Amino acid sequence: MSYIIVICILGLLGIGFYCLLITRNLLKLVVALQVLVKGAMLAVLFAGCLVDNMEVAQSMALTIIVADTIVAVIGLAMAIQVRQITNTSNIRSISTLRK
Amino acid sequence: MTAILIALIILFPWFGAVIIWLMKDEQEKLTHILAMSFTAFSAVLSLVLLTRIGQDQISAYSLGIGMGDLAFSADALGIILTCIANCIGCLAVVFSKDYMNGEKDLQRYYSMILLFIGAMSGLVLTSNAMLIFFFWEITALCSYQLISFYNDDPKAVRGGLKALFITQFGGIGLLLGSLLIFSQTGSLDIQHFIAAAQAGEISSAALAVAGFGLIAAAAAKSSQFPFFTWLPDAMEAPTPVSALIHAATMVNAGVYLLCRFAPAFQGVAGWNTTVLWVGIITILLSSVMAIFANDLKRVLAYSTVSQLGFLFAAIGAGSVTASQFHLLSHAIFKALLFLCAGAVIHSVGTRDMRLMGNLYKKMKPVAICFIIGACSLAGIPIFNGFWSKELILEAIHSGAPLSVYILMLFAVILTAIYSIRCVWMVFFGKEKSELHVHEPGRFMKYSLYVLAAGTVVSWLTFGGFSNAFSKSLPHHEIEAESLGKFLSTIIKDPLTYLAIFMVILGIVLWIFHKPGPSKAVLPKVLETCAVNSFGFEIINEKIIDKIQNLSEFSRELQSGILNWNIFGVLTGLVLILIVLGIGG
Amino acid sequence: MKNNLILWLLFTPMISSVVVYVVGRFLAPNDTEKPNKTVWLCVAGIAATFVPFILSSINILNGKSVATTIGDITLAFDGISMLVSLTVLILGLAVILFSVDYMAAEHSEEKFYGLLMILITSIIGLSTSTDLFNIYIWFELMAVSTYSLVAFYRNRATSLEAGIKYLTQSAAGSIFIILGIAMIFGTTGKISMQDIPALIASSKRIMIAAGACFITGYGIKCAFVPMHFWLPDAHSQAPSGVSAMLSGIVIETGLIALLRSLSALNPAAASFGIIFLLIGALNMLIGNLGALRQSEVKRMFAFSSISHMGYIALGIGFFLTFQESTASADGVFFHIFNHAMMKGLAFLAAGAIVFNLKQAKGDHSPLMVKDLDGISQKYPWYALLLSIAVLALGGLPPLAGFISKWQIFAGGALSKNPWAMFLIVFAGINSVLSLGYYAPLVNRMYRHQPSQTVLAGISKCSATMLASLILLGIFVVLLGLFPMLISNYTGSASSALLNMFR
């Protein structure tokens, strides 16, 4: 059982980082971050299971959800703003800051 | 009393710097007067301080963890250098009254000079190794600001930055040295360190690293081999600044550092020899460069470098007194030469000696002062440079191998050649062009006369000088010698006449050489090498190039692509895991 | 009262952030050129926060502890919190004063001030927390408030770009932090930093994995190379006041969070020390090389922040690796404070110049190095203060940066380890290298012939801007000459660090 959860966690993290490494779309970026957070949250809950302390784990998970939602909201707001200004959701096409 | 004097002598010029900075552009006259009065007062203070030479250690409160105490010592080494800095600083400021008349940004000019003078006093008076570094860096800051005073001129900016980088780079040696002192003795007190080193309580490896670090720092600050390239470029500074910083005070800081720490490193194998050879190589290279240079200020700059080489050689041969006595002479006659050169440049409007000639008739007082300075530089008897150079030659004869002494005699010939060449090209010979000559100002002449008088008589102080050194520096083990004894030793010594003969030989050689481009191979090769600073300029430029390429390469890493940034994060994680895996 | 001091310390800025925002909504002036009056409420909020801060500090300096417990959460005000709060309050005050005129013409200023107060709250809160998860929460709050601040100019594509890059990297960092917490929690069942070391000492692998997660996660905020790529973009695009906050205190707070979290893994502290030493060396080099050929002023300062984090990390590395190097910790905290003042001053002075030259430049193009030509002729005070800031950053005395760098090095030297000496020499070379971009700036500013941009700038200098610059400038000069003025604060911060790790 615990192996499956570990694999799930690693799978979610893997998918999330893979997505962050290749995507150019702002919305997919936010989705990738969401996937990553889900993986991390699963890790927290799993840790709670291991030490048999679900109350603390659950309260942590809830707090993470709140924090993560705020981040997602701000990220989406920025993505929309970018779309409105430049008419694109491709992060490469607004990447002017370099060197 | 001593404590108050020391505090005043550092803080008073700094206070003056702040006041002058706040002056308005319109208050030009007031700015000059304020600067003169501030420096004059601190010069008086420094002369009063001369009477307090002793073994006093003054220590106030602690500065904080790892920083030692705010501590000063009132020994001859420090106080005499303070006097030189303050008095010559005062004369340079008086000279500036005319020289800088009508210039913009006088506030910055005078503030930096005052900040510099205060820092120089602090540097030589403190007995805390961290504070030496502290003041050391302030002098670097001020000299950089003053060299690049004419910021609109790219050459001046370049010269200033070069001085800053090279002296700072050398300063790392001092940083290393003082940190090793701290780590080995647990305190930053220099006297304590010297005592511990002499007692053999410090590990020889640490002592050696500290010793060579200090040599690097001193060589960079005093513009010695292989760091001598900055001083000639520093000549873009206004001439009074050249006189103050690049002849009389700042470059002496390196020599001071070695003199201060010399007793601690007597046990380090090769330390004295290294100092000796750094000195000698510098003397030879820079003398040759001086012979081939055509810019009046550059000739003086190279001669400064070579005279500082004499000071290094003297320390290497084990005679701190000889080194310091020549330092005193050199500070006076070189300030005189620079200020004369300033008067000449101010009058004729060019620095190129090839365009000058036959100026003797047009500006007699300046010419006579310059000739006095040049005679002293060449080592012609009765001027102060003669006596102190004899002292160095004597020290090298007794404290170093004969081959070194022979090289030194050769250096004396070279010195004579470039001195006479410079005097001849500027003041005699054919008139090269129709230059309109201004009469030098009143204040310029005053400071020249004072310095010329100093050049003629300063060697009379030898008795008091040597007495002060032996009395106040217990670790250096210096024997006092009276003026009479000193004179009689030099006059009776046949080697003195050999040296005088070398000087005359040099002058004769120059007078009888064929003017115009030489056909022989050796002088030609030498000239090419000398004009190109023996390749050291190219090395400097290569290093700058390499660093800039590296910088451009590292900027490519900042690709601005988000995916790449995330890749950086993951790489970081992997690297950290690897290092932790190996380490743990 | 004593037990509630921390709550007051946290509630005062938190409540003022709400008040500032709400009142600001109503007070929003019709004339968009005038500053919103709510800014003075913000100043009052900072001033009010100083009261509980000073009361708590007196307790700490007298050797008493200040702590409070609400439910399972314990907040403790120690030496580190004291130093961090002092820094953030002084810098915050300067930034708010600076922003009065700087932000006056911007849309929804009140949001800016509200977020700034939240930022200040979160930094103070972070410095007082005692358990792993609580730190993460404050850290996330700090991050969230800065996302919006970085992308404050929401109609500029570059500003949004910087914001998105910052958000993505920072959010990815949070994942690692959560993972680290999960690992430790899954091994010990505790999240309070004091309880963990005894329980975890036997599970070496977990310690290494969790430590690496923390260093990566918080390291992104601290701009540790190679996780630093967001920083030059964010710092150069944010409003100048925010750049000052970010560089001056936010990245350092990341380091405090990292240290607090690592203290839970105390038994492995020495091996983390090596990481800090390596990162320190890398950061100095990459930061300086990046800044060396930079033609944009704020971006140059941003790269210089990376190199300064290198000095700080080096000091932490000395402290963790070598038992003797406790003085390095003093140096680190001193440098954190000094860096806040110096870099704050640099960014604000650059911002003030941007503000005065804005119309001359005609658009929102960044301040270039060549725009600074001859600025001293027109704005002598700005030129002087910016010169002081950059020379202090370059480590030249008699300014503050020199002293704290020296203290870090002196601590390292006490270890008598040849590698430590080597790193110190390397750091010294980097300081010289950094003058390669600071010193030419000063030369430019003191040219006699101003550039066209400067000539076309507004002549009038804003009084509040100048006041904020002078406030920071005084610290930079004063601490260089009298380093003992702050030694009480750095001393108790360093002993708090000592408590955490030894």
Automatic annotation (TrEMBL), chain A:
Gene3D superfamilies assigned: 1.10.287.3510
Keyword presence, Ion transport: no
Chief place of localization: membrane
Membrane-spanning segments: 5-23, 29-51, 60-80
Leader peptide range in chain numbering: none
Membrane disposition: Multi-pass membrane protein
The UniProt record lists the keyword Transmembrane helix: yes
One cellular-component annotation, GO: membrane
Superkingdom field: Bacteria
Cell location: Membrane
Name listed for the protein in its UniProt record: NADH-ubiquinone/plastoquinone oxidoreductase chain 4L
Organism of derivation: Flexilinea flocculi
Lineage: Bacteria, Bacillati, Chloroflexota, Anaerolineae, Anaerolineales
Automatic annotation (TrEMBL), chain B:
Superkingdom, taxonomy of origin: Bacteria
Domain NADH:quinone oxidoreductase/Mrp antiporter transmembrane intervals: 128-415
Record keywords: Membrane, Transmembrane, Transmembrane helix
GO biological-process terms attached to the record: ATP synthesis coupled electron transport; electron transport coupled proton transport
Residues in NADH-Ubiquinone oxidoreductase (complex I) chain 5 N-terminal domain copies: 69-110
Topological relation to the membrane, as annotated: Multi-pass membrane protein
GO cellular component terms, A-Z: endomembrane system; membrane
One Pfam match: Proton_antipo_M
Transmembrane segments: 6-23, 30-50, 70-95, 107-125, 163-182, 202-220, 275-292, 299-321, 327-345, 366-384, 404-427, 448-469, 495-512, 561-582
InterPro entries given in the database record: NADHpl_OxRdtase_5_subgr, ND/Mrp_TM, NU5C-like, Proton_antipo_N
GO molecular-function term, one example from the UniProt record: NADH dehydrogenase (ubiquinone) activity
UniProt subcellular location: Endomembrane system; Membrane
PANTHER family assigned: INORGANIC CARBON TRANSPORTER SUBUNIT DABB-RELATED, NADH-UBIQUINONE OXIDOREDUCTASE CHAIN 5
NCBIfam families in alphabetical order: NDH_I_L
Protein name as catalogued: Proton-translocating NADH-quinone oxidoreductase, chain L
Taxon lineage: Bacteria, Bacillati, Chloroflexota, Anaerolineae, Anaerolineales
Automatic annotation (TrEMBL), chain C:
Domain NADH-Ubiquinone oxidoreductase (complex I) chain 5 N-terminal residue range list: 72-113
An example Gene Ontology CC term for this record: plasma membrane
Family matches, as InterPro entries: CPA3_Na-H_Antiporter_D, ND/Mrp_TM, Proton_antipo_N
Pfam annotation, one family: Proton_antipo_N
Positions of transmembrane segments: 6-27, 39-60, 80-100, 112-129, 135-154, 166-186, 206-230, 242-262, 268-289, 301-320, 340-358, 379-399, 419-442, 463-486
Membrane topology category: Multi-pass membrane protein
Top-rank lineage group of the source organism: Bacteria
Subcellular location per the Swiss-Prot or TrEMBL entry: Cell membrane; Membrane
Principal location class: membrane
Keywords (A to Z) from UniProt: Cell membrane, Membrane, Transmembrane, Transmembrane helix, Ubiquinone
Domain NADH:quinone oxidoreductase/Mrp antiporter transmembrane residues, every copy: 129-427
Family as reported in the entry's similarity comment: Belongs to the CPA3 antiporters (TC 2.A.63) subunit D family.
Protein name from the UniProt record: NADH:ubiquinone oxidoreductase subunit 2
